Amino acid sequence: MKILVVGTGAREHVICEALNRDGTELYSIMSNKNPGIARISKFKISNESDIETVKKFALQNNIDIAFIGPESPLEKGIVDVLESSGIACVGPTQQAARIETDKAFMRDLFGNYKIGGSIVYKVFDNFHDASDFIDDFGEELVIKPIGLTGGKGVKIVGEHLKDSKEAKDYVKQIIDTKMSGHAKVVMEEKLVGEEFTLQAFVDGDNLVPMHAVQDHPHAFEGDTGPITGGMGSYSDKDGLLPFLDRNDHDKAVTIMEATIKALKEEVGPYRGILYGQFMLCHDGPRVVEYNARFGDPEAMNVLPLLKSNFVDLCERIVDGTLKNAEFENKATVCKYIVPRGYPESSAAGEILDVNEKKINEEGALVYYAAVNQKEDKIYTSSSRALGILGIGNSIKQAENICENSTGYVKGDVYHRRDIGTSKLLQRRIKHMEELGRK
Ligand code: GLY
Q: Whose CA is nearest to atom 3 of ligand 1?
C-alpha cells in the first residue's frame, strides 16, 4: 500500500510516523525539508497547495491513498482533483471541507438540521446591518471572518477588541478587505467554559472518536499573551479530561455524528478526520468550530497511542467500512518549542540543536514542525519548531517526562512550562466548578 502524506508540520510528521510504523510505503510532499518526514519517506519539496504538482507526483508514483494534512489544499479542492484521477483520499471534498472553510455554512448547517450544541449567531455581508447588530446584541460577542485565517481572525469584544467602536472597525475591515477571501462576517455569542478537542475518523457514515485533548492557544504561561497555532496539549489515559466526564464527552460525539449525517445530505459523504472544537459550558458542550483535518498539536496526543493499524484505518475510511479503533490507556503531554518572539516577531533562521537520543532516553518523542533541514543542520522558521511528547500512566508522569526532555533542545527558543501541570489542571477543574458544572 502506497500512501502519500501532503503537508509539512508536526501534524504530518506524526501521521507519517504512524503510517510508517504500520507498514506502508510512504511518500510525502512538503514545503520545507522536515527532518522527521524526510528520513522515513520518499519526498518532494513543493508547495502542498499546488494541486497539479501533488497530482502529478501521486500519479507518477502509483499512490493508492493520499492523506491530506492541512486545511489549505482541502479548501482548494485537492480531494476532488485526486479522486477524479483515481486516487483515494483521507480528507473531505471541497464542499464537505466547508465545515471548516466556511463558518457561515457550518453555523447554517446546525440551524437547518437542528443539531444540538449550537449557539446564537448571525452572518452579515454589509457593514450597516452588522453595526446595528453590535448595538442591539447587548452581550459579549465573538467576531470572525467566515473563511480561513490560520487561527488569527477570531476576535472577542472585551478581550481583543476594547469596545463596540473597535468591534465595528474590525467588522468594516473584514468586509472591505474581503479578509479570508469573503466580504462576510459572522458574529457569535461568547461561550464561557473550558475548551476541548474531539477528533474522529469518519468514513462518510461511521464516526470513530479518539481520546479528548485540551490545547493551549495562548503564547505565554497562565494562558496569557497572543493567540498562536497552539503551544501544547494534553490527554488522559481514559480518553476523557480532568474537567470532562463521560456524559459530556458522549454528548459531543452525538453532535459530531449528527453533523456528518447532515453533511452527507447537504453536500455528500464526509471522509477523513473531523476535528470538533467544543466549549464545555455550564449547560454542556457547544461547538466553537470544526476543522476538516487533524489538529496540530492534538494529532500528537492521539496517533502515538493508536493500537489499531493506522494503514488499515485509512483503507476503511476510503472504503466506508470503519468500525472501531483502539488506543493505549496512557496519558500524554505535548509541549511545542517555538522561536523566541513567536508568534509576533519570531527569531527565524537560527540553528536548533536537538538531542533526539537523550529525549528518547527520557521516554519522550520528537515531532518536527516548521523547521528546515539543510545538510546536517536544522534551522528555525517564523513558526513553531518542534513538539515534544511525553507519554505516561498519568498526566503528571507524562508532563514530567515531557518537561525534562525540553532541556535537550538548544537554541533561541521558548516553551510553556505550565502545560499539563497539576496547578493548571486544578484551575480548569475549579473553573468548571464555578460555572456549576461539577
Ligand atoms: N490546535 C488548533 C488547530 O489545529 O487548528
A: 295
